[in-house]
Amino acid sequence: RKEVEQDPGPFNVPEGATVAFNCTYSNSASQSFFWYRQDCRKEPKLLMSVYSSGNEDGRFTAQLNRASQYISLLIRDSKLSDSATYLCVVITGFQKLVFGTGTRLLVSP
Amino acid sequence: DAGVIQSPRHEVTEMGQEVTLRCKPISGHDYLFWYRQTMMRGLELLIYFNNNVPIDDSGMPEDRFSAKMPNASFSTLKIQPSEPRDSAVYFCASSQTQLLAGFTDTQYFGPGTRLTVL
User: Fold this and answer.
1) Cβ contact, residue pair A43, B111, below 8 Å
2) Which one of A63, B15, B24, B105 is CB 3.0 to 4.6 Å from A54, fit for a cystine?
């Protein structure tokens, strides 16, 4: 079983839609969680951290469920510019990030 | 800030040749990471350094791969001899340690080197 698993997608949604991705992790001792965004042929960039209490940044909401070992990302009012691959990232040890293979999102007009 | 700098951006070589990838981390960052990304396996951590010292190289696929960090502003990843299955995008990332209730500072990625081994 992979340490971090994501549905590869693609998720095809129209502009304005709400879309949610989940990511599961296998190591119950995992400490920190993040969502990164990667545009085609570009480097990954931090989108947001995921806190135990859940957190929101504009149209983006991240949630953590430690009991079920998953994190989620909700995007409201999708924009064309949201089209990208979203990578779930888990820190399993000191400074050691484990990346999921990513979920591809395509937002169409 | 210039961000993480990697060179070359693209490299095409023939099987058996030596390949050297270079990275300059963000000034002041004391952690440096090398990753490899393929469609099949996603983003994999190869090795990381702290204060120029290799801490964990368990992700290095085999002895053909080696990495060095001779000083705080420069690192290399070398593949010798290269094979077609090494074709991938290689990313370098750096971070500055911030330990606060278990939170670790984000990593900043360079633009990557797209390696093709024929």
Assistant:
1) yes
2) A63
Q: What is the pLDDT of residues A41-100, one digit of tens each?
A: 999 999 998 988 889 999 999 999 999 999 999 999 999 999 999 999 998 766 678 899
CA-based nearest residue in chain B for residue A35: B106
Query: Which residues of chain B have a CB within 8 Å of the CB of A95?
Result: 31, 48, 50, 55, 95, 97, 104
Copy the structure tokens of residue B108: 């900043």
Ordered per-residue pLDDT tens for chain B, 118 residues:
689 999 999 999 999 999 999 999 999 998 899 999 998 888 999 999 999 999 989 899 889 999 999 999 999 999 999 999 999 999 999 988 754 444 456 789 999 999 999 9
Number of other CB atoms surrounding residue A99 within 10 Å: 22
Is A100 at the interface with chain B, CB within 8 A?
yes
Closest CA to B68 of B59, B56, B77: B77
The upper half-sphere exposure of residue A17, i.e. CA atoms within 13 Å in the direction of its Cβ, equals 15
Which residues in chain A are contacts of B55 at CB distance < 8 A?
Answer: 95
C-alpha span between B36 and B66 (Å, rounded):
13
Q: Pick from A99, A88, A78: which is nearest to B46 by CA?
A: A99
